[in-house]
Amino acid sequence: MWLTVDVASLVQIALAASVGAVLTAYFLRGPRTRFALLALTGAVCAGLGVVAFIGMRFPDFPLPILIGALSAAAPITLALAPVPVIKTAADALDVLRRTAASLTLHVIYGIAFAALGFACALGAALALGIP
Amino acid sequence: MLASLQRLRFGKLGGTVAGTVLGTVVRYCALAIWPEEVPNLAATLVVAGIGCLVLGLLCTREMRADVSSVLVGAVGAAGSVSALALFAITSSPLVCLGYVVAVPAAAVVGLCAGLAIGLRYGKVAKAVVADS
Fold first, then answer.
1. How far is A108 from A8, CA to CA, in rounded Å?
2. DSSP string of B35-47?
3. Of A122, A123, B39, B90, most Cβ neighbours within 10 A?
4. Distance CA B32, CA B92 (A)
5. Do A64 and B28 touch (CB under 8 A)?
């Protein structure tokens, strides 16, 4: 891809990830429905699709900041929430059934919304005549 | 917003933020070191599998809240859904299909292993306590 490892990038990523984590914690401060969690994942992935387009079109854009914040804002744990304390094998089977469907949905929605964000950014650039 | 954040337990929030920073930096480094499509997919599968294994263990074991919040933050950020969506849309169609199919499968396998290990160790610990 278009990323490099240097100290400045890592510091930017770390700071941006902390901001993304706090924003996600703020969003999750109360009980949320599974649809709300899915919507958060979709919105964050669409934003990352736009960022991907910007990164490909404008190599000087400060990508690590946006990638760090948006990566931290949609953790895989959103697909598993709420995770109960499991004490028996029956509880474990129930959680496995629920999380398998939830994980698949989150991944498919995430990729679809990221592609949608990328396509919208491309369309906007073409409409505005941005080279 | 600040008032809502103050209602969150600071220790738990701090642990989650620290874990998230760690997980994001590790994932970024892995991406920068293995930027090609297939190695990156393999790294994503490994991270998702190991991350869900840790989550499975956390579900079955009693652990200090600050330690578990760090672990949950790190695992969640390292296996970020948005990051893997970004990798998927910038890859070839076959690799993208690999992300769609293999990542949930790896995560479920990891979670299953974590739950199985956690439940088994839990039973062993109870038996040891009962014997002594």
1. 33
2. -SHHHHHHHHHHH
3. B90
4. 18
5. yes
